[in-house]
Amino acid sequence: MSIIDKVIEYSKLERKYAEELKTMAESIKHPVLRALFLSISQDSLKHSLMYEAITQLLEQTQPFITIEELRKITTTIEKHIETEIKMLEEAKKIFSTSQDPRVKLITAAIINDEINHHILLLDIKKRIAEEEALTEEKIWDMIWKESPWHGAPGG
Questions:
Q1: Using CA atoms, how far apart are residues 22 and 11, in angstroms rounded to an integer?
Q2: Residues 50 and 85 placed together within one structural domain of the fold
Q3: How many CB atoms are closer than 10 A to CB 142?
Q4: How far apart are CA 14 and CA 42, in angstroms?
Q5: Are residues 99 and 70 in the same domain?
Q6: What angle do CA 11, 16, 17 make, to 5 degrees?
Q7: What pLDDT tens digit does each residue of the chain (155 aa) get?
Q8: How many domains does the chain have?
Q9: 155, part of any domain
Q10: Which domain holds residue 123?
Q11: Has this prediction a pTM greater than 0.85?
Q12: pLDDT of amino acid 155
């Protein structure tokens, strides 16, 4: 089985799990359990989408990101990182001041997610958005880098 076949299979499994968890969550009246299972269901759906993205990365040439798109992505990521840092601090306060183990469990999950989101956003910015951006420097490299004359008359 190829990696693409595996990734497609995982995407389908995650989507199936997401639907099963969502169905179960919607049948539960307890609001906290319902919210937690819906949250896990959304994570499974997110994983399915990520596996689909892997398939596209492996099967298709990706379009360049324009400078305008890169600026928008960078601005949005930086704003979101600032917000996540604030939310992480608040979740840590709730975690450290609460005596209720149920609240600790939920805030620990939130803290973990916020940390992971922070790392992921930084990596997206650096390893995907900046790498896939079509900058003037990349254009000049495409034109001249492999040229034996590097802009001089080729005679």
A1: 16
A2: no
A3: 10
A4: 10
A5: yes
A6: 100
A7: 899 999 999 999 999 999 999 999 999 999 999 999 999 999 999 999 999 999 999 999 888 888 888 889 889 999 999 999 999 999 999 999 999 999 999 999 999 999 999 899 888 888 777 676 666 677 776 667 766 665 566 54
A8: 2
A9: no
A10: 64-134
A11: no
A12: 47
The phi and psi torsions of 65 (rounded to 5 degrees) equal: -95, 130
For the record, the structure tokens of 28 come out as 């539960």
Q: What contacts 18, CB < 8 A, 6 or more positions away?
A: 41, 42, 44, 45, 48
Q: For tokens 């910015």, what's the residue?
A: 125
Q: Are residues 47 and 71 in the same domain?
A: no
Q: Which two tokens stand for residue 92?
A: 């840590």
Q: Which amino acid is at 140?
A: W
Q: How far is CA 16 from the centre of its chain?
A: 20
